[in-house]
Specification:
Number of helices: 2
Structural class: mainly beta
Mean pLDDT: 87
Strand order of the largest sheet: 4-3-2-7-6
Largest sheet: 5 strands, antiparallel
Distance between the termini: 25 Å
Oligomer: single chain
Number of domains: 1
Shape: globular
Strand content: 35-45%
Number of strands: 9
Radius of gyration: 15 Å
Order of helices and strands: HEEEEEHEEEE
Low-confidence stretches: none
Helix content: under 10%
Amino acid sequence: MKIMNMTIGDFREVETRVWTEEVLCSSLVILPNQGIELHDSGFKLMQFVAINSKEEPICRMSGCSDVIHIDGIGGFGYKWNEKYNGIPTAIEPRAWSMDCLPCGLFRLFIGGKYIIRCGPSLSSFEIFSVKI
């Protein structure tokens, strides 16, 4: 089913991935957890639905995170320490964008020649831009 036609309930029914599996996708839909469960920080937990290039769901992820770190914690990118041999002094810009689906959920995506790499489901959910 195409994401433009999906309801919040449809997104909740998407199959969950194994928490350690990395996923590549073209966009992410941000799905608040049901109920009143909060993270230790006091913020609401989130789930994320990975979306393929055909605008269809791949899998649902996380559910234990209260934050999403775009291009990783610190914003340095995927495996930045190996790539830059320390903290980089300059990082190539990325074209991250967000819009709102008809059902009211937010979709995060990246433009240009990039896809999104989703890390493991931990307390802090890291995503990275990866050149294709």
